[in-house]
Amino acid sequence: MPICLFCVTSSRSGIGDGFLSLANAMPPGSNIVVVKGDPYQDAEFNVPSDRILSASFSIRSPLSYLSIRNWKRLFYFLKQHNVDHLFFYSTAPINSLTVMMVRHLSFSLWCHDPPPHPGEPIHIVLPKEIDQRLLFQSVRCKQVFVCSHFLKKLLITHRNVSPSKITCCPLPVIEEITKHAKRIDYKDREFDIIFWGRVETYKGLDVLGNALLRMQKEGHVFKTLIVGRGPLDAFIPTELISSSAVTIKNRYVENAELADDICRSKVAVFPYRSSTGTHTVQTSLALGCRVVASDVGSFRELLTTEVVNAGSLVPPEDPAALADTLMGVLALPDHDPTAAQGFAEQFAPTRWAEAIMKKVRQQ
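The structure corresponding to this sequence follows.
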């Protein structure tokens, strides 16, 4: 009987792109159906359209959860395809609501963030908190997937999830980005440093801003690209915003443009205050960047276990250490041009999807 891959998002996002990669990387004969959000088109999935449901539930429209029509469409779709197991990938409240409404199905889920990130607003934290508690406490929850042993420990200690229910699978590259790769020789890359991703407090853009300012005052000016929407004024010193050495794209960037930006940069930096699940390091490495990241959470595990010597770790919230590390990394000789392909293969979505499906089928 088919497994339903379930990820309803209100906008295109890293989670939504990861879900798309997961669905399209499923091994032949997986026998899946897909429930997705409206922002993603049926044609993007390598799944027959009659096996896809666009569920019109959205946290931006709370009344959508009260729509009898929306629930009838979901119930009919699951019954029509004789679904016997659900696999949730998003963090939306629709997950726990579906479990409560469809009481005969077992389920598994991917857990992105066991605890909330520092600085996340309460209107985002509270729904995720309620959703996770309801899902983890259900007897029908068969398996919880996380990307690192660090997160596994958090699930055991903070969510009281049994270790036997938790499976670690390192996240893959974001294929929706890497498929647009343009191979540019490392020495010919336009930007020295790139920070990419939605601008949020926990991502430490202010730490990078202070590190850049420190380097500039010492006479070290590096061309820097900052890509991602968010409240930049709260994180970047005014003199950097007006600096000719800093290019800022404070907006949503399509995947093809983002791939081009990463491929034109030498070092990807992630000065996070905390790190749970991330595709950023893998994707940057697969596009030929060196990586500098904070010595926190899943970054530490990824750069010391999965890709040893492929990146540099720095203490969190330490602009001086970040500045020194960036200068050291940028002084290194040309990057090995074959390394990117090796990382792309190591973190291929097909390997990830096969590991998940194998474990889910064992339930």
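The two ends are 13 Å apart (CA to CA).
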